[in-house]
Amino acid sequence: MATLELSVDEAAAVSPVRRTRRLGLLFWIAIGWMTFVFALAAFADLLPLPSPFHMDMLERRAPMSAEHWLGTDGLGRDVLSRLIYGARISLIVGLCAPVIGLTIGGALGILAGYFRGRFETLVVGSMDTLLAFPPLILALAVTAYLGQSLVNLTAILGVLGIPAFMRVARATTLTLARREFVIAAQALGASHARILLRELLPNVFLPLFAFFLLGVAITIVVEGALSFLGLGVPPPISSWGIMIGEGRESLEIAPRLAFIPAVTMFLTVLSFNLVGDTLRALTDPRQGAL
Amino acid sequence: MTGPALLSVEDVSVNLPTPRGNLRAVDRVDLSVGAGRTLGIVGESGCGKTMLSRAILQLLPKKAMLSGRVMFDGEDLVRLDRERLRKLRGRSLAVVFQDPMTSLNPVLTIGTQLIETLQEHLELDGVAAKMRSIELLAAVGIPAPEQRLAQYPHQLSGGMRQRVAIAIALSCEPKLLIADEPTTALDVTIQAQILDLLAREQRRRHMAMIIITHDLGVVAGRTDEVAVMYAGRVVERAPTPDLFKKMRMPYTEALLAAIPKIDAKPHTPLPAISGRPPDPTRPLKGCSFSPRCKYAWAQCQIEKPRLEDADSPGHQYACFRPLNTTAGALT
User: Fold this and answer.
1) Which residue of A has its CA nearest to B220?
2) pLDDT tens-digit readout, A62-71
3) How many other C-beta atoms lie within 10 A of the C-beta of residue A243?
4) Residue A287 to chain B, least CA–CA distance (Å)
5) Across all residues in chain A, what is the average pLDDT?
6) Can you tell me the ipTM of this complex?
7) How confident is the model at residue B289 (pLDDT cuts 50, 70, 90)?
8) Looking at CA atoms only, how far is residue B297 from chain A in angstroms?
C-alpha cells in the first residue's frame, strides 16, 4: 500500500473562517416587536397610563382619542392600559408554563430514553395517563380546589405541557443514545451523568428549545382560551384572552375591542415562532456549512 | 508472543437473545496481546469482530450475555466494578471507531471534546489541557490545530475527523488501543495515512493495539499477529508472516485470494467466496465454513474442528483438512 505523508506548511494551511450569516429583516422586526412588548409590560407602572381598572361609565366604548389612544372598553376602561397590563399576564404565563414543561418533561424524557427499561415504561405510562386526562377538567378541578390565581394557572398549563416535552426529548434521546459518539464516550470512561449532561443534553436541547418557543406561542393562545372560559386569572386583572372574551360581547358595535388584543397576540406569537426558527437554524451546528 | 500478555481474552462467548432465537455472536474465543504488540482481527461482516471488541471493553448491549474472562493488566474486566472499569476505560483502554462521522459529538467543538477528556482523566487545568490538545492534534497531523479546536465535527473532512477521534483516544496515553475498522469509512489514500499514523503513535507510545478489519491488506504490514474470525470463532491465528506464507485454513486462503492483485491482468475476475456465512441463530453441527469450503469432506459436516497447534510456534488453526499438510488438500 502506498504511503502518503501529510506535510503541510503551517502558514499555507487555510485558517478556518468564521461565517457570519444574514439574519434578514423579518427577524429584526420580530425581535423589535418582542422587545417592544416586553419593555411595555415590564415598565407599565412607570408609563403615564390611566389605571387599567378605572371605569368611566360615561365613556363606554369611546373611540380612539388623545385621552384614550385605543379607546375604552364596555366598562369604560382604557384599552391601551389593559392591553399593556394584560401583556404581563400573558407573557408570564406564556413563558413560565413552558419552562415547567421543558424542565420536567425534558429531564424525564432524556432519562427515559437513555436508561430505558422499567423507568421508561413508568414514565411513558404516566405521561399517557396525563395525556388521556381531559385538560379542561384538570383546569376546572384545580381552580375549584385551589382557586383562580396566576400561579395556579401557570402550574396547570405547565403540567399539561410535560408529556409533549417528554416525548420530544425521549424520541431524540432514543436516536442519539446508540450513536457511536455515546459509545465512544462510554469507552472513554464517561459516567452516566457526564454522558447525559455533556453528550446528550446539548444534542437534545436544540429540538427541545425549538419546541419550547412553539410552546410559548401555544400557551399564550391557550391562556387566552382558558381566560375566555373564565378559568384564567381572576378579574379585574386583564389578560389578552380576557380582553378578547369581553370584546366578544360587543363584536357588532365595537369589533376593535376583540380585534386589538387578538392582533397583539397574533403578532407576538408570530414573532416567537419566527425568532425560534431563525435561532434554531443559526445555532444548529449539525446543519453543515457545506 | 514475548513477555506476559497485557490483554488476554479467555474462552469468551457472547450470546444475544433475538426474536429469532439465541444468536451466538462470539463463540469461545481465546486471544492475547502483549504490551506494545499489534494484533489484527480479520473477518467478514457479521463474524463477531465488533462484538468481540465490545466484549473486551464491556460495552455490549444490555441484553447480551457474556461468559469467559477478559484479563487486562491482571484484572478481570468482566467482574470489575463499574467505577474501577470507568477509570480504566479511556486511561488504559481506548477505542477508535469505524465511522468518524458519528463517533464525534456533532454539537460540541473538537476542543471541548478533547479538553474535557483530558481534564476528566488527567486532572489537568484548562490551560494545560488546551496546550496538550493542540500538541495532540499536531501529533495526529492536523494543520493549524489551534484554530481547529473551535470547529465543529461537520466542518472537518472524514480523514480529519478520524484523526481527531484518534487524538481523543490517544489523549490519556492508553496501554491498549482498539481500532474497530478505523479506515473502512475512509477513502483509500486516507486509509494508508491513518494506518501509518496509528502505527507511528503506537511505536512512540509503546502501546498495544488491536486492529479489527475485514481487509487482510490492512493487517499485512502492520500487525505482529493475526486472528482470522469466521461465524464468531477464531479459525486461524498466527504471527503475521506465517499466516500469509503458511496459511492452513481454507477460509484464510479464500480471503487472501479475494484481495485484488496489483499485478493481475486487467479484467481478471476476482475470486469471491461463494455462498454466505451461516445464520448465527442456527449454528451448524460441523465446521461453520464447510458449506462454502471447496475442500470440505464428510467429517467437516459432522464435527466442529478445534483450534490446534501447527508446527510453527504461535500458529493455530481449526480445520480438518488444513492446507499444505498431508491431512489436508494439496494446493
Assistant:
1) A1
2) 777 767 777 7
3) 27
4) 8
5) 82
6) 0.75
7) confident
8) 37
Q: Are A156 and B85 in contact (CB under 8 A)?
A: no
CATH number of B5-230: 3.40.50.300
Q: How many CB pairs under 8 A join A and B?
A: 105
Residues B227-244 have pLDDT tens digits of 999 888 899 999 998 888
Interface membership of A148 toward B (CB under 8 Å): no
Min distance B322 CA to chain A CA atoms (Å): 29
Structure confidence by residue, pLDDT tens digits, B293-310: 888 888 888 888 888 888
CB B255 within 8 A of CB B313: no
Residues of chain B contacting A5 with CB distance shorter than 8 Å: 193, 196
A172 contacts on B by Cβ (under 8 Å):
none
Q: Report in angstroms the alpha-carbon separations of B235 from A192, B28, B54, B258.
A: 37, 11, 20, 18
Give the tens place of pLDDT for each residue, A193-234: 888 888 899 888 888 888 888 888 888 888 888 887 778 777
Interface touch A16/B155, C-beta < 8 Å:
yes
Please report the domains of chain A, with CATH numbers, ordered by start residue. Answer: 70-283 (1.10.3720.10)
Suggest the residue from B80, B87, B103 to mutate for an interface test with chain A (most A CBs closer than 10 A): B103
A191 at B interface, C-beta within 8 A: yes
Who contacts B127 (Cβ-Cβ below 8 Å, separation ≥6)?
none
Of B91, B38, B95, which Cα lies nearest the Cα of B223?
A: B38
* Domain locations in chain B as residue ranges: 5-230, 248-331
The answer to whether the CB of B89 falls within 8 A of the CB of A187 is yes
Instruction: Extract the C-alpha cell encoding B280.
Output: 448465527
Angstrom distance (rounded) from CA A29 to CA A194: 40
**CA separation (Å) from B301 to B31, B275, B277, B286, B321?**
26, 16, 15, 4, 12
Mean of the pLDDT values across residues B60-66?
A: 84
Closest by Cβ to A203, choosing from B107, B147, B196? B107
Task: Give counts: helices (H), strands (E), chain B.
Answer: 11, 12
Of A13, A189, A288, the CB nearest to B121: A189
Residue A1, pLDDT > 60, answer no
- The residue in chain B having the minimum alpha-carbon distance to the alpha carbon of residue A181 is B103
Query: Helices A79-100 and A150-177: crossing angle, nearest 10°?
Result: 40
User: What is the chain B residue with the closest CA to A190?
Assistant: B86
Q: What is the mean pLDDT of residues B273-290?
A: 81
